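Email to the structure team, subject: RiboL-PSP-HEPN domain-containing protein model.

Hi all, the expression group asked for a predicted structure before they design truncation constructs. Nothing fancy, just the tokens so they can compare against earlier work. One-line instruction: predict RiboL-PSP-HEPN domain-containing protein, return tokens.
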Amino acid sequence: MDEDIHLGDDGSIVYDGFGEIESLYDRLDSVITAIEDRNTSGNDIILEPEERTCLLEFYVVGHAHLERLTAIILYETLGGEERPPQNTIAFFREFSQARREDLLFHTGIIDSGLKGELSNIRQYRNDLVHAQHNRMYLPDGKPLRALVNRAIDTIQKLDEQVDELGSSASS
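Reply from the structure team: attached below.
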């Protein structure tokens, strides 16, 4: 059985979202090394199908996790205890991710640096999902390892913020 999804002691399904992202990151790290080893010409790099898949999966799953985390953080900080968590989280999930990021920033929950990192992840994910050429090749000089490292650091930072809030809704 997958380590990131398992049965808890009480028989409930337990999903470790960040654990899944760490697994995808580990797989992507070796892919990036192969890309870097191949980049000796100074030209754009055509990505192999497996490389494209790893990159796309990391950003899609990572972004989905960020969408979940931002909704939970908004619930925990703005939702109010008298409202059922799932209803309030569903309400915040109806907002676009960009809108949730703006709300987190304008209410002082996150700073401009974190807002910028969230925006970068969202934009790169959108570029990968909606523009085939962005999945086909990597422009020479694009700092892929730095982008991926910043993405996982940002996801981890929000994951830790949810843990610090002690959210019962994060299960």
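The CA atoms of residues 3 and 19 lie 8 Å apart. The radius of gyration is 18 Å. Ping us if the truncation boundaries need rechecking.
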